[in-house]
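Give me C-alpha cells for this 294-residue protein.
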Amino acid sequence: MPLSQDDLAHEILKSYDDVGGINHLNGLSLPSKNEIGEITLRLMRLLFPGFYNSKDVVRESLPDDTRERIQWICAHLGQEIIKSLQFDLPEDLAQEDLMDRTQEVLCAFHQRIPQIRQLLDTDVQAAFDGDPAATKREEIILAYPGLEAISVYRMAHILYELKVKMIPRMMTEWAHSRTGIDIHPGARIGSYFFIDHGTGVVIGETTEIGHHVKIYHGVTLGALSTSSVEKLRHQKRHPTIEDNVTIYPNATILGGDTVIGEGTTVNGNVFLTYSVPAQSRVALESQALVIKAK
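Here you go.
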C-alpha cells in the first residue's frame, strides 16, 4: 500500500537526519542557480547587444539600455557575490569589509567587459575563418554553441581570477547544460579560440591554451589521474596547448606535464599523455581501415 502524504513526509524528514551530508539547513544563504542563470543571460545581452534580446535594439536607445543592464546586473550579481563570499571567507569578516570586497569585485569585473568583447570578436572571427559552412558572423553568434560556451567562460574566468569561488562554476555549468561543452572557469585560453560542433568537449581547470587554437567535438583536455585528490588540488594537472594547434574529434590529451607544441595537429581518437614537439602531426597508425565486398 502506498504511503500517505503524512507518512511520506515523516520518512523524508527522517532521511534529513540520517543523510545529513547533503543538507544545507540553518546555514548562510547560498547563491541561487536560477538567479545565476538569469544574470548570465543578461550578461550575454550586454556582450552581444541585439542578439540575446526578444526585441530589436536600436542605437538611439543603446546608452540607456546599457546603463539599465549594468544597474540590474550590479544589483543582482552583487547579492550573489555576497552569498558566495560569506560562504567562503572567515566567519568573523566584518559586514562592511564584505560589502567593500563585493564592490571591488563588481567594479573589477565590469571594467573587464570591453576586454572580454575584444577577445570574443577574435573568437567569432576564428569561427568564421575556420568553418566554411559559416555564411555570416551573425550566424556564429546566434547559432554556434562553441561561441556561447566560450563567451560564458570568458566572463566566469574573470570572476574566478577575482577569487569568487562558486559563481564562476555555476556560470560555466549553465553554459554546459545548454551547449554540451564543459569549460572550467580556471582554464587559461588565448585569443582566436574556436570549438567546432562542440558536443562533449571537456577543458579542465588548469588547462592552458594559446592563440589560434581549434578543437572539435569530443575532445578532452583532462587530468592524468584522479587518485590522491588532496595532493592534486591546486596543482597543474591538465595539458598545455600552444599556439596554432588543431585537435580533431574525440582526441584525449591528459596530464599537467603534457605540452602540445606550436603548430601541431592531433588527429581524431588519439589518446595522448606525453608532450609533442612543435610542428608535429599525431596520428594512430596501428588501426587500419579495411573495406571488403560483402
